Amino acid sequence: xxxxxxxxxxxxxxxxxxxxxxxxxxxxxxxxxxxxxxxxxxxxxxxxxxxxxxxxxxxxxxxxxxxxxxxxxxxxxxxxxxxxxxxxxxxxxxxxxxxxxxxxxxxxxxxxxxxxxxxxxxxxxx
Length: 126
Fold this sequence. Notes:
The chain is mostly beta strands. It is 0% helix and 48% strand. The termini are far apart.
């Protein structure tokens, strides 16, 4: 059974930082594109960042570019999202996702991803 488990969320003041982790079990993600998405109350799930299977291609939403960094450690079967200079509008549940089609470079579309984690809450206070 494939599971993606996120951790690292919490409450932080504006301008602060958090590092999210997503660890996979039941599958080896070394050939998978991985993504982070977020969903705020009353809003649709939106793309945040993705990273290719090899780690050499990354994509970011314009709203987080320059503040967030996605990375991965295939030996640990884990993907990270370093979030700096957090803003109140970054408040959301953050989900990681895996695209099980091997060796793709990245995608912004939720429909591309096959596996999803339950999410971790990030709250940024002003």
